[in-house]
Design goal:
The complex is a heterodimer of chains A (267) and B (261). Chain A is mainly alpha-helical and 267 residues long. Helix content of chain A is 76%, strand content 1%. Chain A has 12 helices and 2 strands. In chain A, strands 1-2 form a two-stranded antiparallel sheet. In chain A, a hairpin with a 2-residue loop joins β1 and β2. By secondary structure, chain B is mainly alpha-helical. In chain B, α7 packs antiparallel against α12. The two termini of chain B are 34 Å apart. Classes of the chains: A mainly alpha (267), B mainly alpha (261). At the A-B interface, α2 and α8 of A face α2 and α9 of B.
Chain lengths: 267, 261
């Protein structure tokens, strides 16, 4: 475990230097991540105000806090790997990665974390400004704040393994746009991105329990809102650990099959 | 007439080019269907908890979704691919070839690349609009329909002029493709009526990036909530932007010195 420490330090340094070269592209990714939750925030706030200040168990203020928290958790966990992998394979960059005596997922994780830290410079003020604009009030409990750190870390890792596995479809076909988009739609409906899951019909909620997506987004967000009981917290962490393990095994399996298929285009 | 024939030619080239990649049609179809799922699914969830959204009834929002897909489809079919090619041409100096052709350069640049499979968005928009119009039914007279057509045309022209002005900046700054991505991420906010957004965001979506004119305004014409002032304002803005973007284009083209030769 600690053997990785100097390697990651090196990766962080290069990835942060690289990202300074692509400042604009970085800001654009960020803009999309801000607009989408902001749009749903406004929609549900409007609905809630019209319904006399609450929809289901959510008050107008809770909707605001929910979607601002969603913006942060979504930003914290998102990856661009499903778009990058295909490019990597088509241009033959993957060959270079294979030559290194370390699994390629590590440099991707380091890249992603580096990006997240850099973009905090923009994301932090945006969140504060939005909270101020929409007059959000939020009283967290200390234990849920403390629990948020490991929960978000697990959410990040499980999403990373899941999307890294799906990204490897690029070994078999380079036409991944429609598949990626389908994934984003499923994520939108079953992760709580579109609306708090309790506003869906019972059957959708039960389906969401069984899928990994709500444990990536809705669960950390609800935890921040103080809507998760200690018992549910344990269940949630259990689900996260299960999906993390499943994602890890899945990744190993596909990776082994994938590199056998890989034919090194380009150089 | 000449320009219609010219457009038909580019369209034919576009069709011939894309027929080589027939699978792309199915991919576009899947993508548009998924987009529609997101739009309609969102409406379904919202309207399972309320009867109106900021004063808009479900069928009125359905009309808005229809307009959103219609204009969005035209952007993706013609405006975006043409402008992307234009920016590439400026960077590589190949714009020289366009400029030497015996036709108006602005028109040539604006229609030079047609991604026909993206017309699927338009094909999806039409039944959605039709269903919305039928459900809105009785109130819709001949005048309303004409007003709708006028606002739709104006909205389309406003988006086109806006995009042309952004692209024209390529003459000075060369790398401006990212602006298109920014526009497309703002565009998705047009799926909802701009009246529900707080004032500062509404201002952004109306004046900084004119999404509102292309989506909310035509949809409000269908639902009979458009005021005369709005209608006149939209048409006036469309005309003004056409003229300004034309002027800006000519300034830009004079500045262009060619990167290759």
């Amino acid at each position: 475990m600690f053997a990785y420490y100097p390697i990651y330090r090196g990766y962080f340094r290069t990835s942060i230097m690289m990202m300074f070269q692509y400042r604009i592209a970085m800001l654009i990714w960020l803009l999309g991540g801000i607009i989408e939750p902001l749009m749903y925030l406004v929609v549900w706030r409007t609905v809630s105000q019209q319904q006399g200040g609450a929809v289901g168990t959510y008050s107008t203020n809770e909707f605001v806090v929910y979607f601002i928290a969603m913006m942060m958790v979504s930003h914290g966990t998102f990856t661009w790997i499903m778009w990058e992998y295909v490019y990597r394979i088509r241009m033959g960059q993957f060959s270079v990665m294979l030559l290194k005596p370390i699994h390629p997922i590590h440099s991707d994780i380091a890249d992603n974390i580096g990006y997240k830290f850099l973009t905090l410079i923009v994301m932090g003020p945006t969140v504060l400004l939005l909270a101020w604009f929409f007059d959000a009030s939020w009283q967290p409990t200390y234990w849920s704040l403390a629990a948020f750190v490991p929960v978000l870390t697990l959410a990040f890792l499980m999403r990373f393994y899941l999307e890294w596995s799906l990204a490897m479809v690029a070994f078999w076909t380079l036409r991944i746009d429609a598949m990626n988009q389908a994934y984003m739609v499923i994520l939108l409906f079953f992760s709580g991105k579109l609306t708090p899951l309790t506003l869906f019909p019972e059957i959708v909620q039960r389906a969401a329990d069984l899928l990994p997506f709500r444990w990536i987004l809705a669960f950390p967000v609800e935890l921040l809102l103080g809507r998760v009981t200690p018992r549910d917290l344990l269940i949630g962490i259990g689900a996260q650990l299960f999906w993390l393990l499943a994602g890890y095994l899945f990744m190993q399996l596909i990776y082994r099959a994938g590199i056998k298929r890989y034919a090194a285009f380009g150089n | 007439m000449f320009y219609i024939r010219l457009f038909a030619t580019y369209l034919r080239i576009g069709i011939l080019g894309e027929l080589e990649y027939r699978a792309n049609f199915w991919i576009s179809l899947v993508q548009s269907a998924l987009d529609l799922c997101v739009a309609l699914g969102g409406l379904a969830v919202v309207f399972s908890h309320t009867d109106t959204l900021g004063g808009w009834r479900p069928e009125e929002l359905l009309a808005l979704v229809g307009v959103y897909f219609l204009i969005g489809g035209l952007i993706r079919t013609i405006i975006r691919p043409s402008m992307t090619k234009f920016m590439d041409d400026v960077r590589q100096g190949t714009l020289d070839f366009t400029l030497t052709k015996p036709a108006d350069s602005q028109v040539l640049v604006s229609i030079q690349s047609v991604e026909i499979w993206r017309l699927v968005d338009v094909l999806i928009a039409l039944p959605v609009l039709a269903i919305a119009l039928i459900r809105l039914g009785a109130q819709l007279g001949l005048i309303d329909t004409a007003v709708f057509a006028v606002t739709l045309l104006s909205g389309g022209l406003i988006i086109y002029s806006f995009w042309l002005m952004l692209s024209t900046c390529a003459f000075w700054f060369v790398k401006v493709e990212n602006i298109q991505v920014i526009f497309m991420s703002m565009w998705q906010a047009g799926r909802w009526p701009v009246s529900i957004y707080p004032a500062w965001l509404r201002a952004v979506l109306t004046f900084l990036v004119p999404v509102a004119f292309a989506t909310t305004v035509p949809a409000s014409a269908v639902s009979g909530r458009i005021t005369d002032a709005n209608l006149v304002g939209t048409v006036a803005l469309a005309v003004a932007m056409l003229i300004v973007s034309r002027w800006f284009w000519r300034v830009g083209i004079r500045f262009y010195s060619g990167a290759s030769a």
